[in-house]
Amino acid sequence: MKKILTEEQAAVRGGAVKRVKAGTYTVVISLVILALLIVVNLLVSALPSKFTTYDTSVNKMYSISEASEKAARKVREDVTIYVICDPSQGEDTQMNTFLTRYADLSSHITVKVIDPVSQPTFTQKYTANTLTNYSVIVESAKRFRVIDYAEMAFYTGGLSASADYKTLVQYFELYYATYNEYPSLYFVGESMITSALDYVTQDDMTVIYSLSGHGEAEISATLSKQLSYSNVSVAGAFASLTATALPEDCDILLINAPRTDINATEAAMIRTFLQNGGNVMMATEPGISAMPNLLSVAEACGLSAADGVIIEQTAKNYSNYPYWPLPVLEEHEALADLTSGYYMIMPLAHGIVRAESVPAGVTIAPIFSTSSAAYLASLDTGSLAKPEGASERSYWLGASAVTAGGGKLIWLSSATAITDDAQRITGANYSFVNELANWLCPRQTILEDIAPISMDEPVLVVTAGAALIGSAILILAVPAAFIITGLVIWIRRRRR
């Protein structure tokens, strides 16, 4: 028998049905919104980090320049950037984002975080040194480069911020004595990592061989590393005594502080190398006049030596000792990329002068020179005093020559200038050597378009006039405004 509902029962049942429908609708809408949020979250997480994470560091330290973006997009082979990160030492989220931006730009670049605690032997195949937290290793199938996090900052002039305390103090004193201010600190993480990408993917490298067999000084590991930043590889020693020609892959021959003279056959071989378009960098010491065969190489390029020890008489032209000259930087193409604030120190140098006759087609130019008050101390007496009758004049301490065949010679009259000791004093000697090598064998590098970023906190400079006005506003105007406003309100209330 069909049950007949009263109007009241029907209304109750109808309301229940409506509530069920409304609840179902709410649940469906909630699920749709939740699904949309999940999809949006997935889409956002797939976006490159430059759209989702912002660089809040001082002066945008962890942003990537246009030059680095172009370099990363040009990578056509697999490259892995390993980040050495010990979680117990804290996480540098800005550095993580910075490195991830490289991976966002190319599918061939991968960033992997390595925990040195769980993988203690990982770095041993790359370096024997203990790396600081957030150091980076960039590796391809061709080669790799290790970048210690401590090396990603340097002071004006090129001195690494990781230098020892004594070196930093000496450098700060030298800089302040010259400029009456202290050097600024710069972050070069971007240029080093982008340079590493360029380095590990290059097919060809500029190759340097070092002449051996005459007591020459070896290239230090520090200088080799500095040269590698410009894609210059130090191949090793070249034993000229047993060779008939230089190696085919030799782009630059370095003659570094020989203790004895080369023979006539070796000299002829090097001259032929220069005449046929080869490049030579020569660093010598006082006493060069006792090496006529080596001198014949320079004289074939229109240069000769003024033997003795260069002495500077004005304090601003030397560091610590008068025989440690700080040369004048000439307007030379090789120095075009070095800004002011860079020092080259050339201890125990002799002079370089124009040869009596310059061969046809040879072009010579000074790179470094002394002041006009310099003189040559005699090697015979062992005294630094000015010899009787010696003249004061400007000498070249570094010069270049280009032969008719396109070969290039750079001659530095101080072998000490390309040692770690000299580098520690100025922090920039090796930067000069790098630029000279690049002039000898030009190679376009991406570093030229990546400027270092200042890490100094911006300073608000307030003039005396502005300070006076500000004080007047804060001390007089603001309190007066409050007093007047209070009086007006009090008077209005009294009149009501």
Describe it for me?
The protein is α/β, with parallel strands linked by helices and 496 residues long. Among the domains are: 1-46; 205-450, Class I glutamine amidotransferase (GATase) domain (Rossmann fold). The chain has 12 helices and 19 strands. The strands form 5 sheets. It has an 8-stranded mixed sheet, with helices on both faces. The termini are far apart. The model is unreliable at 458-462 (pLDDT under 50).
Q: What is the class of the domain at 205-450 in the CATH system?
A: Alpha Beta
Uncertain runs are 458-462
Separation, N- and C-terminal Cα atoms: 82 Å
Radius of gyration: 34 Å
**CATH homology superfamily name of the domain at 205-450:** Class I glutamine amidotransferase (GATase) domain
Which structural class do the helices and strands define? Answer: alpha/beta
The CATH architecture of the domain at 205-450 can be given as 3-Layer(aba) Sandwich
> Mind summarizing the main beta sheet?
8 strands, mixed
* CATH topology name of the domain at 205-450: Rossmann fold
> What's the count of strands?
19
Give me the number of helical elements: 12
Shape summary = extended
Strand order of the largest sheet: 8-7-9-10-18-17-15-13
Strand percentage: 15-25%
Share of helical residues: 25-40%
- Average pLDDT over all residues: 83
